[in-house]
Write a structure and sequence with these properties.
Two copies of one chain form a homodimer. In chain A, strand 2, helix 2 and strand 3 form a beta-alpha-beta unit. The first copy, chain A, has two domains: 118 residues, NAD(P)-binding Rossmann-like Domain (Rossmann fold); 195 residues, P-loop containing nucleotide triphosphate hydrolases (Rossmann fold). Chain A has twelve helices and twelve strands. Chain A has 351 residues and is an alpha/beta fold. Chain A has a six-stranded mixed beta sheet with strand order 1-6-5-4-2-3, sandwiched between helices. A six-stranded parallel beta sheet of chain A has the order 8-9-7-10-11-12, sandwiched between helices. Chains A, B: InterPro entries: DgcN-like (IPR011669), DgcN-like_C (IPR035086), DgcN-like_N (IPR035402), P-loop_NTPase (IPR027417). Chains A, B: It holds the Pfam family DUF1611.
Chain lengths: 351, 351
């Protein structure tokens, strides 16, 4: 993470802890809810720190929070505007800039998890300097990441993996963390994406790491710990994704997970943003994760399946969960619905 | 590639074509031949452009070229010193710096394929400015790399993959390129590593690309072409390597190869630089490459095996080639030994 420049790793946590909340969630002119993961994640997991949302003309995605212009949000106590949407490629479109400048002029810092650096946009840089506000890039990885070593290390690790992007790997990891904490266990959520880092206050933006160092970054993120300690690591992408498989594989190898949970959204048939690419089967993801995960975690196993049933009725969700469990012979749950199925998934994570 | 700064992609070929040869090959104080891939590659494929080698005290690796101090090399016509060794992590050790400054003072430019940027080392930066020489970083990727799209594209592509790093993927790709050209076909070697780029005069240093963009970089490297055109793409790392699997997977997905050749070194039992990690079987690499490669190349197939038998006698090499061919039922050859076995491997690449 950086404030217009790269900072050493030991400053990452400090800065994240100091992110300027309460937040105003910026949704741009986005029309695809799947790209608004950051806004929804902040609303759902740290909603008490979100005062409202700011949507540009043409935008058709809403978090349900009050619509506020930057000046209104500042009057309500907001200290930072968070860019709550991510485009493929992480570019900040030119038609967003006036709105972002408006936020700086209203006294808000800007927090971004996109690939593009805020400070590289001349209008934003100038406005930040003029107003004395900060441009905070959560997605800039720490410097000095080593290459992976792959050596076995102490502590237990659980990784969420998926059949696609943006279908619940972060939510599953957060819910598993909360569920295990509720059992009195020593658990950390390890964030690998911009939203997770904003929620957790620390982490490594794994998809922004140079490919040679992805496994090393994952090793750094979940270091050796007491044998009773559990890290629940936020997965990224999918091994079977045409664009982001590299991120997923480096994270898998570096995380050395004892177990993994496959995240899937019933009813999604094509890879998000890649029309014509069928979603792989859960079985194919399990098979690939086992085959590749054994490189650094010889006894790796699938603890179960996390289904994102947000678009289903409770009855349909229950039927889908039962059907997938019967098909695979593994614990299956929607962590956001909780219940006995989710407790069985947690049991399996601990087995 | 950059001359102390990032440059746009369209300048890469121009600059590479203008690399300052003849070269003096710098071997530092390296004691592990496996790390001197660059020096050996330049000697073997563009030996006519290498005047000699420069080894520091303690070094125990030699290319067999004449030992020359920088001033002697300059007197023999050298224009550039090429750093011919790569450490894990790509760091330039402090005990190399005096020798590199000596080269600049002798009138040589420095060409590096390491992760560390030459211009980031104050002593080198100052010496380059003082002497008017250039610091050329071949490993800096072009700017503006897109994320992968994965869509089918015209042209034929062959990718070399491997059971480990540094065992012949570049040599195999160069030899296959040469063999197919000898048959009158329209073939390009596509370089993905520092040495390959120095040899080819163009390419993308794939392991230096941010992980989210590796597949996109591979798509850019081997663009759509006439259906009779063949790109032979230099592989990197191994899907089953504990540190570099991410690089290999992004390259596989982005390359969309019609076929691949698995490169292996008989007798190597452990992953280079990762003691305790057994070399995966050729079968495991074929299986992982097929399973993951199908994401973007549904009809991907293994064309055969390239064995690096450099440490074997001709008789032992022939026996090993025959044994692996019988075991796998695929064409097997050592491209550097050529012969009928290699012609059968080329036939299979074209099948």
């Amino acid at each position: 993470m950086s404030v217009t420049a790269r900072v050493p790793q030991d400053e990452v946590s400090r800065e994240a802890a100091g992110l300027p909340s309460p937040y105003l969630l910026f949704l741009g002119d986005t029309v695809e809810p799947g790209y608004a993961k950051t806004a929804f994640g902040l609303r759902d997991w740290v909603g008490e720190r979100c005062v409202g949302e700011f949507v540009l003309p043409g935008g058709r995605v809403s978090t349900g929070l009050p619509a506020l212009a930057p000046a209104q949000a500042a009057a309500e106590g907001a200290r930072g505007l968070v860019i709550g949407v991510a485009n493929a490629g992480g570019i900040i479109p030119s038609n967003w800039i006036a709105g972002l400048v408006e936020a700086l002029e209203a006294g808000l810092d800007i927090v971004s998890g996109m690939h593009a650096r805020l400070g590289d946009i001349p209008e934003l840089k100038a406005a930040a300097e003029r107003t004395g506000r900060r441009l905070i890039d959560v997605r800039t990885p720490p410097t000095g990441i080593p290459v992976g070593v792959g050596k076995p290390r102490l502590g237990r690790r659980i990784l969420t993996v998926g059949t696609d992007c943006a279908l619940g790997k972060k939510y599953a990891a957060l819910a598993i963390t909360r569920g295990l904490k509720a059992r009195g266990l020593d658990v950390d959520f390890r964030a690998t994406g911009q939203t997770g880092i904003m929620i957790a206050g620390a982490g490594v933006p794994i998809d922004a790491v140079v490919s040679d160092f992805v496994a090393g970054a994952a090793e750094m993120l979940s270091p050796a710990a007491a044998s009773s300690h559990i890290d629940v690591i936020e997965g990224q992408g999918s091994l079977l994704h045409p664009a982001y498989g590299a991120v997923s594989l480096g994270l898998l190898h570096g995380s050395q997970p004892d177990s993994f949970v496959v995240c899937h959204e019933p009813g999604r048939t094509e890879i998000l943003g890649h029309p014509g690419f069928a979603i792989p089967s859960i079985e194919a993801v399990i098979s690939a994760t086992l085959a590749l995960g054994q490189v650094t975690s010889p006894d790796i196993r699938c603890a179960g399946i996390s289904l994102n049933t947000g678009k289903l009725t409770p009855e349909a969700a229950e039927a889908e969960i039962a059907a997938v469990a019967a098909r695979l012979g593994l614990p299956v749950a929607d962590p956001l619905r909780g219940g006995a199925a989710f407790e069985r998934l947690l049991d399996s994570c601990l087995a």
